[in-house]
């Protein structure tokens, strides 16, 4: 004899798992009314959906950037799905926010360590599989970055499409606003490093080689190439390193000069820029 499944049981299972009403009802029917078995049924269903979608691209999603109440730590995470429709869903954004909150509270050392933490009593890696089953799209956390410092400002740009963390050398008056201005600069201009000392040697060698090839191709003597290439390298540093970039809100200053005007000696100690799907 089949067990009668009440609407309250279905609703209770739905609230606990987040699965759809019909999926919850089917799970309870399959489990003959056994609530724990119904939860296991839904988890297995989620695992099957997840396994079937492992080869799918999940390039949509949201970027969440947050800083701690004391302003000493900031994290940014990228939580992915397959479609823009899901990315805009308030429940999906709330799920991503919870993962970000856990990341900020625990500051795990790696993405793998983050996935081993718990959200609402469940291990994040398992929750991702569960959400995949509920939503029917591959759900994953693909990026996690952390910045610590005297003052860390977090900024989210373009409807959760890009997140920036900026570490400043001091927590001074105006640091929040200045940090946001610098974060917006990073979002717009995508610098490769804080200053030229942060640019790796391979990048420098490549820029010099490209410049020399261009100079020789223009018919200039090879002996001039080295000097001209050095000038082009200096322009590369000016255009692509944060402190040397022209401040987008005031072209009369570079970022180093802007920060110095906020507070003498104020500078950037670290930054992270995470763009959706990049």
TrEMBL record:
<dbReference type="Pfam" id="PF00889">
    <property type="entry name" value="EF_TS"/>
</dbReference>
<dbReference type="GO" id="GO:0005737">
    <property type="term" value="C:cytoplasm"/>
</dbReference>
<dbReference type="InterPro" id="IPR036402">
    <property type="entry name" value="EF-Ts_dimer_sf"/>
</dbReference>
<comment type="function">
    <text>Associates with the EF-Tu.GDP complex and induces the exchange of GDP to GTP. It remains bound to the aminoacyl-tRNA.EF-Tu.GTP complex up to the GTP hydrolysis stage on the ribosome.</text>
</comment>
<keyword id="KW-0648">Protein biosynthesis</keyword>
<feature type="region of interest" description="Involved in Mg(2+) ion dislocation from EF-Tu">
    <location>
        <begin position="83"/>
        <end position="86"/>
    </location>
</feature>
<keyword id="KW-0963">Cytoplasm</keyword>
<protein>
    <recommendedName>
        <fullName>Elongation factor Ts</fullName>
    </recommendedName>
</protein>
<feature type="domain" description="Translation elongation factor EFTs/EF1B dimerisation">
    <location>
        <begin position="74"/>
        <end position="277"/>
    </location>
</feature>
<dbReference type="InterPro" id="IPR014039">
    <property type="entry name" value="Transl_elong_EFTs/EF1B_dimer"/>
</dbReference>
<comment type="similarity">
    <text>Belongs to the EF-Ts family.</text>
</comment>
<dbReference type="InterPro" id="IPR018101">
    <property type="entry name" value="Transl_elong_Ts_CS"/>
</dbReference>
<dbReference type="InterPro" id="IPR009060">
    <property type="entry name" value="UBA-like_sf"/>
</dbReference>
<dbReference type="GO" id="GO:0003746">
    <property type="term" value="F:translation elongation factor activity"/>
</dbReference>
<dbReference type="InterPro" id="IPR001816">
    <property type="entry name" value="Transl_elong_EFTs/EF1B"/>
</dbReference>
<keyword id="KW-0251">Elongation factor</keyword>
């Amino acid at each position: 004899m089949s067990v009668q499944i009440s609407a309250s049981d279905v609703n209770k299972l739905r609230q606990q798992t987040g699965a759809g009403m019909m999926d919850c009802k089917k799970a309870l029917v399959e489990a003959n009314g056994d609530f724990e078995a119904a939860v296991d049924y839904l988890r297995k269903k989620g695992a099957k959906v997840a396994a079937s979608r492992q080869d799918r691209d999940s390039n949509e999603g949201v970027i969440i950037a947050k800083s701690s109440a004391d302003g000493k730590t900031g994290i940014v995470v990228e939580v992915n799905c397959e479609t823009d429709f899901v990315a805009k869903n308030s429940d999906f954004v709330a799920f991503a926010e919870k993962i970000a909150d856990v990341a900020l509270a625990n500051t795990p050392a790696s993405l793998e360590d983050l996935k081993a933490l718990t959200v609402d009593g469940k291990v994040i890696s398992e929750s991702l599989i569960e959400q995949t089953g509920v939503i029917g799209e591959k759900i994953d956390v693909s990026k996690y970055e952390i910045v610590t410092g005297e003052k860390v400002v977090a900024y989210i740009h373009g409807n959760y499409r890009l997140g920036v963390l900026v570490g400043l050398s001091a927590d001074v008056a105006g640091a929040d606003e200045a940090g946001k201005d610098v974060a917006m600069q990073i979002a717009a201009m995508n610098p490769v490093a804080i200053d030229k000392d942060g640019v790796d040697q391979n990048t420098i060698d490549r820029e010099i080689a490209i410049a020399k090839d261009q100079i020789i191709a223009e018919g200039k003597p090879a002996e001039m190439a080295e000097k001209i290439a050095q000038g082009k390298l200096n322009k590369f540093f000016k255009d692509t390193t944060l402190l040397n970039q022209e401040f987008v809100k005031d072209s009369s200053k570079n970022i180093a000069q802007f920060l110095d005007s906020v507070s003498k000696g104020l500078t950037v100690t670290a930054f992270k820029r995470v763009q959706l799907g990049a």
